[in-house]
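Homework help thread (please don't just give me the answer)

Our assignment gives two proteins as sequence + structure token strings and asks us to describe the second one. The first is just a warm-up. Here they are:
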Amino acid sequence: MNIGTPDEATIPSVRKYLREFLLDPDVIDIPLVLRHILVRGIILRFRPRKIAPRYASIWMDGDSPLRVYTKRMAESLQIEMGEVECEVGMRYGNPSIRSALEILRSKGVDELLLAPLFPHHAQATTESSMKEAFKQLSRMKWSPDLFELGHFEDDPEFINPLVRSIRPHLSEGSHLLFSFHGLPVSHVKRADGTGKHCQKVDSCCLQKSEANSMCYAHHCNMTAKAVVNELGLSEEEWSISYQSRLGPAKWLEPSTLSVVEKLANRKVGVVVVSPAFLADGLETLEELDIEVRDHFKDHGGGSFSVVKCLNDNPDWIKGLKNLIERGFSKSGYSEFAE
């Protein structure tokens, strides 16, 4: 399961996609009436007109890159796994989670692993996708044996292919920037069931504890730490930022734009990687490789490169296969089941 994409790079298609995406209470978690006023009354009136040309600038093979790369990932995985059936379901847009489940049921599947393609657990991605899958299974009255992939932020099966994809971009004097997708701080705090850890303990994101075991920001930091350790980088040679902010709420900091401004002033070459995304899409191909690149150059920056997502990289497909085989060996009650 991946997050989703418009069917076409047009204003009506982008508006339809954003309506489904932003009206999800797991994405914008404010009261229903306020959410509809914000999304329908403000965002959908202006944002599709702004975003549609950005999608058009990266459209490939007559389709959205995110859908193209996610399908390639599934096709490569199916070849790698042999008789295991692999289908793609998007949380928003097409192909839908329901359509993927229908195909799998028609093929006689009786053991089903739900695999949100998000290394880091978050309410707006993993949770929303899992809830939708369980809702559709219930409506279909289909009860296969269920398994879940879970988060894998610092698992070697993910980290090792990621490190190998980054290494060729690094040179003497370059700076590695981990640009993760942003989240409202309220989402992160909610993951702390104790209410005593998140942003109340020094370096809370770097300390593993029960309180942050499902925390997105903690998972992001664990990915960065694992990669940096493998690459042998010093503290001055890397940093973390968060991209893709939307609306007036307080979001995770620092922002990617603010960090690249500072790096431009330091006159260092910048290599950007965005490990929150496993398949390239708008956030990597347009936001990072065009918008953030231009911002860096406008502030006097020099060398700038963006590491491609793992997509259908053979090393990653082998790692994903191992994660999935491990997932099939586990079972148990899911908090997302209705």
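The one we have to describe:
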Amino acid sequence: MQGPSVRINAEVSTDNALVVTCFPSVGMVSSVVAHFLIEHLQLEFIGGVVDPRLPALTLVQEGVPLPPIRAYAGKPQCTIDGCDQVILLMSELVVPEALAHDIVWAMFEWSKEQKIVAGVVIDAFAKSGMKANLNGAEPVVEYEDTEGIDIVGIGANDKSRKMLEDMNIPLLQQGVIKGINASILGEARRRGLDLMSIMVEADPRFPDARAAATLIENLNNLLPSIDLPHEPLIQEAEFLEAQLQSMMEGAQIDSSESGTANSMLYG
């Protein structure tokens, strides 16, 4: 059986790109962030990740069919040395654990061929004392719980950890990351790549716009072209929440048909 592959429009140049990944997270933070970036960085759909073992489904938004794991690209201002553009990889699908390593390997092999310069994993963790909503795939972290929305970072190498410190994002001291984000971080560490994960505290009971806004504000350090006033950003994130919730309600997957309990849409 053919394995996973990243299929990008042949006309698109991907050299010197910062790759941002947005896979399912607590409070749908990654999805809210992804849709915000697509709109405000004017990213264009360029392809996605294909694997015959993924559920055969298509999300539809405003009449447009969308594959489960898709890619967008654009050329916003980027502060990382050598970065000329941004590529966003996103999904509302909880990638089955059995496929995560294969898909991540394909993504990293593609990134090596395409001369990707750095990566950022968007993630979230449940507020202290709350149960998350990813059927066992949610991260478990130990952090200092403050009155505000807390944020932590993970760096795959010394350079990325230094970048997080320069962004005033405290490094996660103790925790367990699961699912495809764990595979991304582990493989990046093995390869010694400039990749970081930015994780925000979120309410798992509903799409958390304020958590997403906090994370986007921290991304301003890497992508200053998305620098927006705080309140309008929250208002727009809340509007995106409603769109995402509507899309998710119309896409229910029977996991028993796929044979994989984690093959589902979240939200």
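TA reply:
I won't write it for you, but here's a hint about the kind of observation we're looking for: The two ends are 31 Å apart (CA to CA).
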